[in-house]
């Protein structure tokens, strides 16, 4: 039987479980759950033109790809596709079919460039380059053994500094939106992002079922949100730092370390045994912070870009 590519079926629990199985096998450095997959599809902004594809063989999901428009980019026409194939089912054409289907869809949606993350291994880079993708900037996946590692001790809070959680902002999370928007805009990236839509942020970030508001730390200085460390979990053993950042006016004071350390300590106390995070290779300050915690690089991926519509 040949491999077919089709759209993800939100009402089919087996589809969500299949996508999770593929992602965990292909990229075991990220927190992925069936509930999170369903939310990813349901909460996507219409402007994103988001499409989740699955590759199926003998009724089994063996591959998947996320594709969409980078609607929050400062440059129009930017898009993304990230295909994954289960390691046990590679070499059967699933990856090529997923990628071709996604590219055709994105081109029809008006995309002029498509970006994709590619693991920094010869087979994956060759696959991308043969299909017209050229390498851009690298990023690292990092892992911390929470069960057996030693975290830095919790330090005493400086005067005027408070340590809260995202749960404390349940009635009004806008200060967290503003901090997230400012810090995200300063992150190194090929595709710059600009958060201006509070309602959209509420939909896809604040209401994300993977976001653990109790483990997300927020540093407040003289009543103003200064830094934060957002935590996502699978509800079992895996914890991920989704974003750690400090607002411009408060940088250079160790507040990101303070936020992340508090979150990691609470995560370990809650029974999480593995902590993951990701860093752009040029983000020296956060790489240094994570090295201080004991994170080690587990893998590297390289962002690749391809021009659509005959561009070069």
Order of helices and strands: EHHEEEHEHEEHHEEEHEHE
Proportion of residues in helical segments: 25-40%
Strand order of the largest sheet: 1-2-3-4-5-12-6-11-10-9-8-7
How many individual helices? 8
Rounded to an integer in angstroms, the radius of gyration calculated over CA atoms is: 20 Å
CATH class of the largest domain: Alpha Beta
Largest sheet: 12 strands, mixed
Global shape: globular
Please indicate the percent range of residues in DSSP E strands (runs of 2 or more). Answer: 25-35%
Number of domains: 2
Walk me through what this model shows.
The chain has about 300 residues and is an alpha+beta fold. The protein folds into two domains: about 5-110, Gcn5-related N-acetyltransferase (GNAT) (Aminopeptidase, 3-Layer(aba) Sandwich); about 145-300, 3-Layer(aba) Sandwich (Aminopeptidase), CATH 3.40.630.30. It is about 30% helix and about 30% strand. The chain has a twelve-stranded mixed sheet, with helices on both faces. Strand 8 and strand 9 (about 225-235) form a beta hairpin. Helix 1 packs across helix 2 (about 35-40).
Summarize it:
By secondary structure, this protein is an alpha+beta fold. The chain has eight helices and twelve strands.
How are the elements arranged and paired?
Elements (H helix, E strand, L loop, with lengths): L3 E4 L5 H14 L7 H9 L8 E7 L2 E10 L8 E8 L8 H15 L4 E7 L2 H9 L3 E12 L15 E5 L8 H12 L12 H9 L10 E5 L2 E10 L4 E9 L8 H15 L4 E7 L3 H10 L2 E12 L5
Parallel strand pairs: 4-5, 10-11
Antiparallel strand pairs: 1-2, 2-3, 3-4, 5-12, 6-11, 6-12, 7-8, 8-9, 9-10
Helix pairs in contact: 1-2
């Amino acid at each position: 039987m040949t491999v077919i590519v089709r759209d993800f079926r939100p009402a089919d629990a087996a589809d969500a479980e299949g996508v999770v199985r593929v992602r965990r096998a292909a990229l075991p450095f990220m927190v992925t759950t069936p509930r999170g997959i369903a939310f990813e599809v349901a909460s996507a902004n219409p402007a994103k033109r988001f499409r989740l594809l699955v590759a199926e063989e003998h009724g089994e999901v063996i591959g998947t790809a996320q594709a969409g428009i980078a609607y929050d980019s400062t440059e129009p026409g930017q898009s993304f596709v990230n295909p994954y194939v289960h390691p046990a089912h590679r070499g059967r054409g699933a990856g090529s079919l997923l990628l071709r289907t996604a590219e055709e869809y994105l081109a029809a949606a008006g995309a002029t460039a498509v970006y994709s993350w590619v693991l920094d291994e010869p087979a994956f880079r060759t696959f991308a380059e043969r299909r017209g993708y050229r390498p851009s900037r690298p990023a690292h996946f990092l892992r911390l053994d929470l069960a057996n590692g030693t975290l830095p001790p919790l330090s005493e809070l400086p005067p005027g500094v408070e340590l809260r959680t995202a749960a404390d902002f349940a009635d009004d999370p806008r200060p967290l939106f503003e901090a997230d928007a400012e810090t995200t805009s300063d992150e190194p990236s090929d595709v710059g992002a600009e958060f201006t839509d509070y309602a959209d942020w509420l939909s896809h970030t604040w209401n994300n079922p993977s976001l653990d508001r109790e483990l997300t730390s927020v540093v407040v200085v003289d009543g103003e949100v200064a830094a934060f460390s957002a935590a996502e979990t699978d509800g079992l053993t895996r914890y991920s730092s989704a974003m750690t950042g400090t607002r411009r006016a408060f940088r250079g004071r160790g507040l990101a370390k303070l936020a992340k350390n508090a979150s990691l300590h609470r995560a370990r106390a809650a029974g999480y045994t593995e902590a993951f995070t990701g860093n752009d290779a040029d983000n020296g300050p956060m790489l240094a912070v994570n090295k201080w915690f004991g994170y080690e690089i587990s893998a590297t991926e390289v962002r690749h870009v391809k021009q659509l519509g005959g561009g070069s």
